[in-house]
Amino acid sequence: MTNEVTVPLLPCASIDDIVAFYRVLGFSTTYKQRKPNPYVALQREDLHLHFFELAGFDPENSYGSCLVLTSDIAELHRAFAAGMRAAYGKVLVSGMPRMTRPRARKNADGLGGFSIIDPGGNWIRVVQDAATPPTPAPTPAGRLAKALANAIVLADSKGDVRQAVRILDSALARPQADDDPATHVEVLVYRAELAMVLRDEETATEMLARVKRITLNAEETRRAAPAFETAADLAASLP
């Protein structure tokens, strides 16, 4: 047999909330029912996601997850980000729903990936299709880069935000003269992002303020550009 298709079936508290959110990301509804059980089928090109509603379901305690394989992580992230900015005026980087930024992951041979955490608490994990792998990112060098790589695995892959925070805080507490400024910006912005996930707006504000105090040359500014974009989205989420 060939051409089989597997479609994930994920839980949620409200299929209406799910439809509203995924519409922002460019999905259309291909099927929806209220009885006998609330159920909805969504599609965006070749990407299919189905959801069922459970009374009393708590998205904060969801274990729902699936993988999305794509040949172009960056392009899909840009499309989702554009939808969010059009609907919300910013990319949702905190709370639920939210979307992480593509980052190289050492537990995926240095290939990039990002996740969408939807209103049902489901983790839609977008990863590189092994059939069309890009050149993996170089192995992180330096104390801050290694701490960042470890934190990304814990928070973005495993969802262990608090342990990732401990790793970043330990690295930031021991500044060294040879720390790469662009990586320092990445660490501070990621720490601010994790603070927002934990609803710690005070720490997020502090980290973003520290970013502004780092001096960068032109090449370092170029490398830190994605982090600055995330910082702007985070700042827009702060009161």
TrEMBL record:
Xref: SUPFAM superfamilies: Glyoxalase/Bleomycin resistance protein/Dihydroxybiphenyl dioxygenase (SSF54593)
Domain of life where this protein originates: Bacteria
Annotated protein name in UniProt: VOC family protein
